[in-house]
Amino acid sequence: MNVADRASLLGFSDIVKIRNRVFAMRESGHRVLQLEGGEPFIGTPDFVKEAMKAALDANQTRYAPSSGIQPLLDALVEKLARKNSVAVTRDDLIVTSGGAHGLFCAFQATVNPGDEVLFLSPYWTPIKDQVSYSGGVAVRVPWDEVRGESPADLRQTLESRCTPRARIIYVNTPGNPTGDVLTRDQLTEIAEFAKAHDLTVIADEAYEDLIYEGEHVSMASLPGMAERTLTVFTFSKSFSMTGLRIGYVVAPPAFMPSLRKLVLNSVNGVSTPTQFAALAAVTHDPHFFDAIREQYRQRRDLLLQGFRDAGFSCVTPPGAFYTFPDVRERLGGDSWKAMETLLERTSIASVPGSVFGPEGEGHLRMSFSTSMETLEAAVRALATL
User: Fold this and answer.
1) What SS3 state is found at 204?
2) Is the pLDDT score of 341 beyond 80?
């Protein structure tokens, strides 16, 4: 048998391994307070489900254009102009099978063997694998070196890690796992850095609607950045459509032929009825998110207070739905052992910080995107540590 060597460049997500273990524990009768996940706590909205049902009833089940159905592309053009201050035509867009697929295609379309790809660390776990699979060299930029510092310090930190082989910078805001939100000034410094070194930017904006303090700024909206930025969006987090697998990529004309070929040869095209569900989502009243954000904020603040009362240090995340407490003082510096200890003593399932890169060691990622009942039970359990 011949197994392709390239498959060894991809890992199997540790988060998935933890999730599978939690499922097994629950099936065997163990009580587990699940804070390890990364899904919205709300159900998929009725208006999304109804649109998908209507598409099925109308026999919208045939092949769609591989770049996406025209009504959805037109709605995305309007959304990007209104919400993200990014002016595009439908020719600058392609629908993908979720944000992860969009990122995979973006890295494959931009990275050549030996190219260096910079990204802030801790980072979402698949990013390093996607860089490696595309032949690139991962260059981590420790976020702790610049959190709370001036935008100029962020620029200086990036410059210190930039070599003539640098070609790409990946930017994720709001960020997973820390929930950090890059400010307009910080993004402007990253933009100036990218222009100075002729870098392409891959902007991951999966959590654009989940911001509690500050604002979301799309990298492609900044001066001179639309022509060098591929932006990846998803419907998963905003509209609780994680299982429907749909997102989209906005890219300069030079990258679109590669993206179209990658989508065509990987999934052929996204499920047609799912695209009608996404159309309903993107054209729905934008105030839909207001009440949901407030529910997320209440959950965040409850869990943060529980951490602090239990003696954990934790930065307040201004976006996404994750907390990243420093557990070294209470549970030790090995985050895998800390995860096991927390699970054993409190029944709280979390993700070791080292999964998100060496800069995450000594931390645990816990999501507040779950029921208030689960969070209240977790806070009570933390008090017993």
Assistant:
1) strand
2) yes
The DSSP secondary-structure symbol of 84 reads S
Q: Give whole-number Cα distances, 309 to 8, 341, 375, in Å.
A: 43, 18, 14
CA distance 256 to 265: 14
Q: Which residue has the tokens 């999730």?
A: 19
Task: Judge whether 270 and 97 are in contact, CB under 8 Å.
Answer: yes
Q: Which residues contact 141 (CB under 8 A, 6 or more apart)?
A: 118, 119, 120, 121, 157, 158, 161
Answer yes or no: are the C-beta atoms of 22 and 34 closer than 8 Å: yes
Closest CA to 220 of 234, 206, 235, 232: 232
Which residue segments constitute the domains of the chain, with CATH numbers given? 5-44+287-382 (3.90.1150.10), 46-282 (3.40.640.10)
- Identify the pLDDT of residue 17: 78
Choose the weakest-confidence range: 26-30, 149-153, 282-286, 370-374.
26-30
79-to-28, 50, 52 alpha-carbon distances in Å: 46, 21, 20
pLDDT one-digit tens code per residue, 31-43: 899 999 889 999 9
**Is-contact 224 200, C-beta < 8 A?**
no
Q: What is the pLDDT of residue 10?
A: 84
Q: How far apart are CA 76 and CA 282, in angstroms?
A: 7
Q: What's this model's pTM, rounded to 2 decimal places? A: 0.96
